[in-house]
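During the second year of the project, the team shifted from modelling isolated chains to modelling whole assemblies. The rationale, set out in the original proposal, was that interfaces cannot be judged from single-chain predictions alone. As a representative example for this report, we include one of the complexes processed in the last quarter. Its constituent sequences, exactly as entered into the pipeline, are reproduced here:
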Amino acid sequence: MIKNETLSFESALKRIEQILKQLENKELDLEEAINLYEEGLRLIHFCEEKLKNARTRIEVILKDKEGFKLESLEKAYELLKNGGK
Amino acid sequence: MKELEEIKISVEEREKLYFTVKEITQDLKNLIERKFPLLWIEGEIANLRYSQNGNIYFNLIEEEASLKAIIFCSQRDVVITPYLRDGLKVLCLGKLNFYPRSGECYFIVRRAEPLGKGLLTLKKEALINKYKALFDPNRKKAIPPYPKKIALVTSIFGAALQDFLKISKDRWELEILIYPVRVQGEGAEKEIVQAVKDINTYFNDVDMIIITRGGGSFEDLAPFYTEDIILGIKDSKIPVVSAVGHEIDYTICDLIADKRCATPTAAAEEVIPSKEEILYRLKLYQKKYNQLLEIILSKGEKRLYEAKIELESRNPFKVFHNLEKKVKELSHKLTLEMEKYLSLKEKKLLEIKNLLRKRHPQETIKLGEERLKFFKNRLFYSIKTYFEKKEKKLENLGKLLATLSPLNILQRGYSIVKSYPKGKIIKSAKEVKNGELLEIYLSEGRLLVEVRRVEE
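Output from the structure prediction step:
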């Protein structure tokens, strides 16, 4: 059983698939099966929540003499317009 | 033959006009060089050799024909010359030069283009050959399936970036860093290599680096066919995905990268998981969970049901009930059987009784009595009948006798004479002697008489 707070999406998904495999074992103890089922549903819900809010954030790495800074795409576009990259 | 003879004749007839070697070679030079200013020649390279002065010599051949060719050191095409080799088919641009000194004609090559395989292919083959070990699939790093942060090395003005962002927008919880570089033209590969290096050094939390650009001409793609690209990418700690232009051709960049995608769009689709897809998958998992649990539950239910049946079949009350029922049944049957048996016996007894009754002595006596009575009656009647019969007969006989009785005859006047006392009927006179006594029977009374005479 994995705690939700520290759970990464990837490990949740892995666990979901693992649970599926475990449930496929038809000889499974009923109580255990129900526990697994509940855990699986909880994890699915967790993943769904995470996915529903999934957004992409875009930033552009700009390099100058002082080092790197991150800019929005629009701003980087303006800044680089003359540079032609 | 005829022509030959004509020539022979004309040769002999003519004055002997001749050229000096110098003259004719000069003429040839003029002829050739004027006739063929700048021209393309297609042929196969043979007998390729590099001279110390930097010139390259080779023969352009085609079947039985051959032409000597030179690439002067000053005109060496930097791009192609390293890939020239015997057997390579080329299209060469140049000029035909005749050298009177040696009496030879040379094709002075200014440009050469490989035929069949393109130049990039040649470069690629050479590089692949050189760095064979680096392209080993086992060397390739795995691409994280669920990245959180990726770096895009591409032109900020290119269509590739737009294509990539279009697909990746809100596809996944993802941070995309764009490292702007030039993706074509002289030195572009150096910028790309620098980007990979910088990302490895300063942005090492990035899950993968994607180098991408759209399709283009071979010249456009040239930076991706360079040795710099190989050397720059091979040491990246972060997995590198290459999605450079062409669908069909694999660039060197594609080959050295840990993963190759055909186009920028394909890269976005393949490398960034789709939340829609995962959501769909999760739905599917949930469905499967339900199905599996149902199977397990129904299996449990079945077992429970079976156990219940089994238990019920062993329920003491039921067992008792069943036994009771059986006992009842048996006892009922027993009663029935008993009754049947008894009635049978009773019947038999009755039969015997009847039989016995029939054979009872009283019965016999009664029967005997009856028989006796019967016979008695019969006897009585028989006797009676007999007597009656006899009486009647007697009567008849009496009547007959009466009719036949001598007395009757006597009545008619006859008499019977009998000896006396003997009583013998006398039928003849001879039987009687004188003096004998005779008894005469008359119809009424008798007479005792004495014989006095006998007359015969």
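Chain B has a mean pLDDT of 86. Chain B touches chain A through 42 residues (CB under 8 Å).
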